[in-house]
Specification:
Helix content: 25-40%
Shape: globular
Distance between the termini: 38 Å
Structural class: alpha+beta
Largest sheet: 8 strands, mixed
Oligomer: single chain
Length: about 850
């Protein structure tokens, strides 16, 4: 409600008009009994009327899902290793296993301009981050029991699944920009595909908004794009002069605090700088329908043991999420989105923007939903801006992490004020500038990552490091001009999508000089697994050494088998592509027979070989993680948490590619290529584990996984599409069987961290583990031709819920085949494409 008050009168008027339209629909739907089918499942026939604040709530909730990280999850892991190994070695093991450095060093600004941006400089004498942090003598933060209890509660909430810090996010996004110098048409091109859950109907709603204040007058709005249902503005798209897209930027906008809690006279207090401050009590009540009793609309208060009747809030930080009165401790969470922020104003302004200056002016209102924004316009400009406000912490501004790296901002911070962990308040005697929503000092706009018209002619963003602050694994060893630590966030994506897009742009530019819209479509459709291409040379090297008559000795001789030789034959020369290998599999490069949907077609011989190679390689990676990273942890304790699959791949690549230096041993002494009870040279033990993992993969494929392929008579039966499948869900989280075949999902090409996002857990060892339900929630490409902006799009399904009148998601085949439809934008194209028209008049008007 306070955020709504921050909006301009014009933006609030848009929300009021939108709410009136929603409510008109609701009234008609209730009277006619035609509310969407999901209400019937929930036994509801009435809906509370929409209000403008509900639209702001939608923006806040989407922003929460994109910008909130569970710092406490990392703290819990660090605590577990400190308890098992002691403070110093436990911290070192944590840094060994949860590597912050990406596997691919592609960075948004450095790759666009060819150098590190000025104004950010490495700290003299190193930093205070996690790499090498064991020497700092810091153990893990102390609130282990509180954190464990809170995380156990959250684990039961499906809506928060995957919120485990930056590495735990399965979703992401890609965009890339081509400037006029790299475009065959001479005009900028923007390509964007945000990765979110794939539902029927899709998350996004297409809309083309045209506003003429008077008939025939100059249009104040002519914008096409996609919006979130519940919000009137186009969130991603283009108008007549500019286009914009987004990827998630995992900036650190939330802190978890360990509070000192006191209870007196029935009230709660926290201690700050030696003074008691009263905890605020915010009453709340949620009402839910009693689904399953057959009684409609029988709402009742949610059970108090499931939903508390009040929120306890530490005014200077945020809500208390867990407390222990016996220990006098509590955890509170501070998040930028909990403040009155005017983020909706950004989209109100962008829908009407005419220039780069207009776009930048609108960006200033984007305070909490941290995104990387792409911009292009008909004047030939391309630009990148990291949006949102990043609060400055007292200790970091002083040049260090107070208390050492174990109290870093991505772990648990001290809430008592003694360690100077608080966000720096905005001076009371200075009014907040326009668009500045947080009552705190923030990183200045000039120091936020950005670049305009880079000389290289292109910009790439795929949730990767914006300016390279984490490439060395230490997010705290760069300095601002003021001397404070330049801190954006602890970690970014593993980097393969950004690396592959950058590679493809450079290759196509070298080959043809310029790129077309068709080239950008092909890049968005790319399904080459860089991760496998980086890992496989080590397996093939071990195989070659096993074939040698000298040097390897008897230790590798047992691997000279026909089964392994046949598998290696598929892997040698594999280009990393991941086709389904199935007649009914959806592959971007397939040409369908006449009358068949695009994307379906019989695979040729090369596709089949690549498909089999993809299957073997991906199952091998999972077994290699089990035999190395997981085995090293289990030797300490099988109860210790394991890094997620993406982090495990980082660990493997680091030690394989730096084996001459590390010998596969981390700073904590964890040995990742160790054979217990065997004394052989480290390189030989590494090779044994690489080849043993291939043996294990083949046993898994011809045993527990065989049912996925129907029957496994030979390795040629191991087609990737039998495992790698898309599962769509409806808005209640159920399989969308009305839109797709029931059962095991849709076979599609793709794989782990490919550009055409279709990831799964690299540890996958069962058929369900290879399935995925998140990816490109929309693909769109815009070419900014003056006076004739052209756009192409693809959505994963119809704009309606599946049902008797919409048995098939009619846009899904185009999306599955990585095809596009041209967006009608000019008046003549809209008129030609129109199927029906609905005219709405004021009540009583004939």
């Amino acid at each position: 409600a306070r955020s709504l008050e921050q909006l301009s009168p014009g933006a609030r008027a848009d929300l009021e008009a939108y709410a009136a339209g929603v409510n008109a629909f609701l009234e008609m739907a209730e009277q006619s009994g035609t509310l969407p089918a999901e209400y019937g499942v929930l036994e509801l026939t009435r809906v509370r009327r929409w209000k403008p604040v509900d639209s702001i709530s939608i923006l806040k909730l989407v922003g929460f899902s994109l910008s909130f990280d569970l710092d406490a999850a990392y703290a819990n892991i660090a605590q577990a290793y400190a308890s098992a190994l002691g403070p110093e070695r436990g911290w070192a093991a944590f840094t060994d296993l949860w590597r912050l450095a990406p596997a691919d060093p592609a960075s948004v600004v450095p790759d666009a301009v060819g150098y590190r941006p000025s104004g950010v400089r490495p700290a003299a004498g190193g930093g205070t981050g996690r790499e090498g942090a064991a020497s700092a003598g810091s153990g893990a933060p102390p609130p282990g029991q509180l954190v464990q209890a809170w995380l156990a509660d959250l684990a039961a909430l499906p809506a928060l699944a995957g919120m485990q810090g930056p590495s735990g996010r399965w979703f992401g996004s890609n965009w890339f920009l081509l400037g006029p110098s790299l475009s065959t048409s001479g005009y900028p091109i923007l390509a964007n595909d945000p990765h979110l859950s794939l539902t029927v109907p899709p998350i996004w709603y297409q809309q083309h908004l045209v506003v003429e204040p008077v008939p025939g007058g100059e249009r104040t709005i002519n914008v096409w794009g996609v919006a979130f249902p519940g919000v009137p503005w186009v969130i991603l798209g283009h108008n007549e002069r500019i286009a914009w897209g987004a990827t998630t930027n995992p900036a650190d906008q939330a802190d978890t605090y360990l509070e000192r809690l006191v209870q007196r006279d029935g009230r709660y207090y926290t201690e700050f700088e030696g003074q008691l401050e009263e905890v605020r009590v915010l009453a709340q009540q949620f009402r839910v329908n009693q689904v399953g009793d057959g009684v409609l609309d029988n709402l009742a208060a949610a059970p108090a043991d499931r939903v508390p009747r009040a929120v306890l809030e530490v005014p200077r930080h945020g809500p208390i999420v867990r407390m222990d009165l016996g220990r006098g401790e509590a955890l509170s969470v501070q998040w930028t989105g909990a403040y009155a922020t005017p983020d909706g104003e950004t989209f109100y302004l962008w829908n009407r923007a005419r220039s780069l200056d207009d776009f930048v002016a609108g960006l200033r209102y984007m305070d909490f939903a941290s995104q990387n924004w792409a911009f292009a316009d008909v004047s030939g400009n391309i630009a990148y801006f990291a949006g949102a406000e990043l609060p400055l912490r007292r200790d970091l501004e002083g040049g260090s992490v107070d208390g050492g790296p174990a109290w870093a901002p991505y772990l648990v911070r001290d809430g008592t004020g003694l360690r100077r962990h608080d966000w720096i308040p905005w001076p009371a005697n200075r009014p907040l500038p326009p668009g500045h929503g947080l009552p705190f000092e923030v990183l200045p706009e000039s120091e936020m990552p950005h670049v305009v018209n880079p000389a290289g002619g292109f910009i790439v963003s795929a949730n990767n490091d914006p300016i390279g602050t984490t490439l060395d694994g230490d997010p705290f060893n760069d300095r601002r001009a003021s001397g404070g630590i330049y801190y954006l966030g602890p970690a970014y994506s593993i980097g393969f999508r950004a690396g592959r897009i950058t590679q493809l742009i450079r290759e196509r530019a070298r080959r043809a000089g310029k790129l077309s819209v068709a080239d950008t479509m092909a890049i968005q459709s790319d399904v080459v697994e860089l991760s496998a291409l980086r890992l496989l040379p080590f397996l093939l090297g071990a195989w070659d050494r096993a074939q040698a008559t000298a040097g390897a000795g008897d230790a590798l001789a047992r691997f000279r088998t026909r089964e392994l030789a046949e598998a290696v034959d598929y892997l040698k020369g594999w280009d990393g592509s991941t086709p389904t290998g199935l007649d009914q599999g959806w592959d971007a490069n397939d040409t369908a027979p006449p009358g068949e949907p695009p994307g379906l077609g019989a695979p040729d011989r090369q596709e089949i070989r690549s498909s089999v190679a993809a299957t073997i390689a991906n199952v091998w990676v999972g077994q290699l993680i089990r035999n190395t990273v997981d085995a090293a942890i289990a030797r300490v304790s099988p109860e210790l948490p394991r890094p997620d699959g993406s982090m495990a791949v980082r660990v493997l690549l680091h030690h394989l590619e730096n084996f001459d230096r590390t010998q596969g041993v981390g700073g904590s002494g964890l040995s990742f290529f160790d054979l217990p009870g065997v004394e052989l040279p480290a390189a030989v033990e590494r090779d044994i584990l690489l080849l043993t993992s291939l043996e294990d993969a083949l046993r898994l494929l011809t045993g527990p996984l065989a049912s996925a392929f129907g029957a496994v008579r030979s390795l040629e039966d191991l087609r990737w599409g039998a495992l790698h499948r898309l599962v769509l869900t409806d808005l209640l989280g159920r399989p969308a069987t009305a839109a797709v075949p029931p059962g095991d999902g849709i076979p599609v090409d793709g794989g782990f961290e490919v550009v055409d996002a279709s990831s799964f857990d690299p540890r996958a060892a069962t058929p369900p583990a290879f399935r995925f339900s998140g990816g490109p929630s929309v693909r769109f490409i815009v070419e900014l031709r003056p006076g004739a902006v052209e756009a192409y799009a693809s959505l994963p399904g119809s704009q309606q819920a599946a049902g008797p009148t919409n048995p098939a998601a009619n846009l899904l085949p185009t999306w599955l085949a990585n095809d596009y439809y041209r967006v009608p934008f000019a008046d003549r194209d809209v008129d030609a494409a129109a199927v029906s028209r609905l005219q709405m008049l004021p009540a009583g008007q004939p």
